[in-house]
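Forwarding these from the shared drive since the link keeps breaking.
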Amino acid sequence: MIKNLFFRNLRAKGMALIMAVALWFYAISKHTGDIKEDLLLTINAPSGLTIMDTSSEMVTVGLSGPQNVIDRVSDMIKDNKIKARYDIPDINNVEEDNFKRTIHLTRRNFNFPKEIRINSLVPNEIEITLGRLESKYIKVHIQKNGTPALGYEINSEFFYPREVLVTGPVNILKEADSINTRVINVRGITSEQNRTFPWVVDIENNISIVKNEKFVSIPVVCDEKINVWFHITEQMGVKVFDNVKVNVFHPIDYKYKVKLKEEYISLSLKGSKLILDMLNPEDIMAYIDVSSLSPPGPYNQPVICKIPEGLKIEGHEPESHVDIFEAVNEKE
């Protein structure tokens, strides 16, 4: 019996369901919404020209339409699926290096769904400056960031090519002296990198100049890459070590007394800055060997210094005045 109740008037029930769904869609489509959104405007220049300046890069649009479509459009804008675009038609017989134009925005510059109505468009007129393009060879400037590892330095650098072919606005290229490479990170490099060169780096896609007392960066095109060599060496320096103790070496059964006039000396060392910074006066072995001297008598003797490999004594070799005389026999 339950089965009969379910299948009774099945056609009428189906029609009722279809009507209910249709009414639901009708109600949704009749419920309208409004939004205001900011869109980035892309302006494409014709062949042989480039965009040098615009009065505005953003456009604020006021939209209305069915709420479900408005919600979908809002999500599409967040996902960058809605575009604001203006393609400048070809301009023939351009003789000026740069010139101004006014463009007018309409609905066809946006890819909104057909159900959406544009209520406002601010601004709907944009002032643009167009520049005529040319190609020119310009000197390359290497950009570096950071410093080598502690105790190392860039001793020299070399790069090739020294000039590259750049395509950009005529009036900008006339004033440009050089174009930068992408920034090369030299932070923490050591002499081990000498074996990994050359580094291949790209050219920046803009040129910066001072124009009308303002710093201006203009897009350009350059497809060349630069080979860069750096010669990394240990950083060298000079450091003075004061109060280095001078020791006296002689046989164990030495029968003479030795007196130094200079028991402590100052020592100037030259070499790797990294080693110098780690070295202390106590780490330096300085001594005079009197074993070969014929006592008694005064002597001026060179001070022998044991220093780490790679370091050298800067200036004159240190000396000390030595007095050698017979020891007094305390038993007498």
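-- next protein --
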Amino acid sequence: MQYSILKRRKIRALVIIGILLMLLYVKNLLERQTFRSISNTFTEVYNDRLVVEGYIFQISENLFQIQKLIDHCNIDYDYSKVINEIASNEKSILEIIADFEATNLTEQEATYLTDFKKIIETDLNIKSYDLLYSDSTGINRAQVKIYDEKISLARQDLDNLSKIQMEEGEKLISKAKVLINRSQIWAQFEVALLIILVVVMFLLLFRKSDSNRGMI
């Protein structure tokens, strides 16, 4: 009779140990998934936000050079090849935009980037220097003003794209914090399971040892 009771206790203890080990295994699987999510989040922060902010800065620099050429800011500059130089800057911008488009764009980003690309490809696609300057009348201020207004619109798109990088970056960092906090909770859960496991094993061994002494 006593042997039967001991056997049942032992089986019950082994079942509890098995459940605890299973919970530890499941916890480890979930924690691996959490760490993968954290890694992916920080990768996204770098590839889709920090790198993109660098793209925006490069585009802004090229756009600034285009505006300088259109506005004839440097009086001593040789403007004989200005159309080619503007086209070269626009080509550089479009190459950067191609890299930008390959990132994980939000709906708003896609809208602003499409609008910006249209301005570069269409509105600032200057075919003739005569649109900017002629020997008889000098700088075509009316046309230059139109181009400046288009550049202002392009800069607004860049500013909006830059703001999105900040907003989305903050969201990703918040997500990473949640994942890290969740990982810490899982770690505490694991410690609790290990303590319970040790207690169960101790009781199993202690009761078995105590019962053996009672039988003697």
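The chain has four helices and two strands. Residues 86 and 124 are 9 Å apart (CA to CA).

- D.
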